[in-house]
Amino acid sequence: MTLKKLQSFKARTGEPLGAPLLATSAEQVDAAAIAAADAFVSWSASNGATRAALLSALAKALEDDRDDLVALADEETALGPIRLNGELDRTAFQLRRFADMAERGEPFDVLNDPAVAGGPPVGHPAMVRQRVPLGPVAMFSASNFPFAFSVLGGDTASALAAGCSVVIKAHSGHLVLSNRVAGLIPEVLKKMGLPAGLISLIQGSGTDVGVRLLSHPAIAAGAFTGSTRGGAALQAVANARPRPIPFYGELGSVNPVVALPGIVAAKGAELAATLAGSIALGCGQFCTSPGVIVLIDSATDKASNDTFVELFTTALAGQKPHAMLTPGMRQAFDAGVHHMVAAGAQALLQEVGTAEAPHPFLAQVDAVNFIARAELREELFGPASLIVRADSLAEALEVLSAVGGSLTVTLWGAEQESDDNRALVRGAMNIAGRVLFSGVPTGVAVTAAQQHGGPWPSSTQPMTTSVGDAAMDRFLRPVCLQDAPAWLLARQGQPC
Amino acid sequence: MTLKKLQSFKARTGEPLGAPLLATSAEQVDAAAIAAADAFVSWSASNGATRAALLSALAKALEDDRDDLVALADEETALGPIRLNGELDRTAFQLRRFADMAERGEPFDVLNDPAVAGGPPVGHPAMVRQRVPLGPVAMFSASNFPFAFSVLGGDTASALAAGCSVVIKAHSGHLVLSNRVAGLIPEVLKKMGLPAGLISLIQGSGTDVGVRLLSHPAIAAGAFTGSTRGGAALQAVANARPRPIPFYGELGSVNPVVALPGIVAAKGAELAATLAGSIALGCGQFCTSPGVIVLIDSATDKASNDTFVELFTTALAGQKPHAMLTPGMRQAFDAGVHHMVAAGAQALLQEVGTAEAPHPFLAQVDAVNFIARAELREELFGPASLIVRADSLAEALEVLSAVGGSLTVTLWGAEQESDDNRALVRGAMNIAGRVLFSGVPTGVAVTAAQQHGGPWPSSTQPMTTSVGDAAMDRFLRPVCLQDAPAWLLARQGQPC
After folding, report:
1. What does the pLDDT look like over B327-379, one tens digit per residue?
2. Chain A contacts of B494, Cβ < 8 Å?
3. Do A35 and A15 have their domain in common?
4. Is B270 a catalytic residue?
5. Which backbone phi and psi does A382 adopt, to 5 degrees?
6. From A467, which residue of chain B is nearest by alpha-carbon distance?
7. ipTM value of the model?
């Protein structure tokens, strides 16, 4: 069988970038999964200091190669050096943060539950609750974060900290960069005397190498950041295995912003500018891009909401997004715009832009139609947003309920306690992983309290997060030891 | 449409128990889901004291009706008054334990993550991580625990403590008892001024009312204890919804016991008696019944293992299990025995028993065949076990690996640290939620460190437990509040 050839392209011009690369063969995918299972045996028993040393060394390797990596990433993705340097900083920060957690022993936390004399239900044997790493993880890189949700991104960092090995599927949108980053890893592993199979890269189509990897019996979990369609397909693969495994998919999200009448009237111009910047940032290629703006039109507030819409339209028209990541995404954006207009949204901005860089798109619809038409609630990946005009707070709550699942909801103007604001907060918390009360949802802090994941379609596992400290929990399964011998208890939560 | 009629039977005689009951209609299922969604609004905002008061009052209602409940349960299930009184104690204990957790404020735990000045990745806004209850939960009662995993069982208790409302599907194996227990609830709710829709019961076939309930848009999660086939079917229903929801299924488990040569030689008779008692207990109708006994036959140990098998066969032959829960389960047991023999297991005990109460079944197979034939690794629900003879520790580890997922693994004789014992512990922890080093896996303590759930097929969500304090976590989804206003922070984790 001839191996498929994969060609990367320069995002700004569409020209080929570098020579074609060979797709990973089925046998090579299997070999990577088996090597990851072999590496898992020793890595799962490694101590926190060893895990911290690897993660820190990987962070340093990224930083040492910064100039070349950023230049290459910029050519391949058009995201620009400022953003890409910032993203590399964030990626190194993430690696070091999980290094710190491993060093502090968080993967080895133990809950001691001493024996209680007597019969059940009160009496019980000596029990200890600790956690074991799941096993080799299949990691699917995202298009839109070539560093932070890719080869050495958050999923890899949190899985390694937990004691898992990883096989990473490169994203076709930054194949050359992914190979360059992956090329830094063997040297780091070798210096530490760690097996090469601990972290490996595969490439090719998702339906080909991706499905084969996720179906391999040695793989114990999947982690994915990408589209709802792609994530749902992989979730089905994980479920269809003879032994289904956890699949952590971070999928689409429309991130509603509810701007209440008071703040719209008082600060409309400022909010319009902030929102326009957030929507166009990175050409709108963020899972937290604000895709739905909800305004509440009581009789007295309609006029100031109309003014806000004008200001917002003007502010967004003034944004000049850069090229999208790939021609496919650029085409999907146009298709999404047509789809939304066909579904009844009234376009407020409709210039097309260039073949690589779209013009921002803005449309408006009333809440009744938004609630009635599911097509209007689908994520439109790129610099686009839909204003939804509700007649009342109750209708705005129905809009949130129709969205159903989102990474974020932003509530502007809920500073004072009231029945209305409590209802809004309840409605927002019921559908989102993160609720913001100021600022914009783009920019996801890597911190202790972060929750990046919410009800479907924003996540396949809404109880988990793919950003922040709790991301490590996805890869550690609780195990209870009953009447454990002294030698095992002396390991203090460290797997054998 | 005429409603289906449901008839319950006396387990010991097969005679009808009581008059036929009407199956819940589709409209009534929908009404129960909608009433649960209505009740969720206030219940999710209730404080810990209110939740504790309800859970404690339910425990007391069970205890106050103890004599009649146990008598009825005994007639319907044949489990016997000693076991049933113990199970009622455990059920009340569970309710009060979750009451205490609610009262201590555990559902409202808050992680405060104050703002850090400066740009990303180090700087970030003020963030707070807390949890919200998922919403109305569809609860599927188990056949084998008419109190503890049924109407007011652990799933209901943990969901209510978390702030969720529940719609419970009664199990056909104890329909009259389920109605009697459910009949205690409205009075308790009314006295506390709580809506009747907070806890309701439906009944009928799983493919009928069960699927309709789990598919209802108002339902936010499912919880199930039962067979692998039934659980897998319901998991598929939860996944096929327009908006998939978490489904917590506790399915089949074979619970391997690895008895190492040293302890077999030293204490064979005692272990044989213990094991036989555990297998026949409750007619083997426990998800933690030891279904696979692994012996390691080195040249020097084969003889004492053979002696143990003889002792064990005799001990098990002496057990007289009571009637099974239903005629269907009794027939499934015989079918499973035939299936196992057809797959190559050599029967050591093969009397059939009566039409209601089976005789214990014991068979033996070598590890090579056990590993090769998936049929031998399926749970046989009832008083049965399969001895697997391995030639080496390595082969015993392959046996565990072939089992793949189990609620428990028991390791007898691993008291001393050694490479072999470390490998065994690793092999056990890789596939199980609980690893025991003495005693038998039947008897699942309701305590802080318990983990009742492991890799597929023992759970659909191996990171969660359906017994013990962490069971409440299944119904609480993390939410991050960013720049939350003072009035909201003052609620200290209490939903609006």
Report:
1. 999 999 999 999 999 999 999 998 889 999 999 999 999 999 999 999 999 99
2. none
3. yes
4. no
5. 140, -175
6. B480
7. 0.97
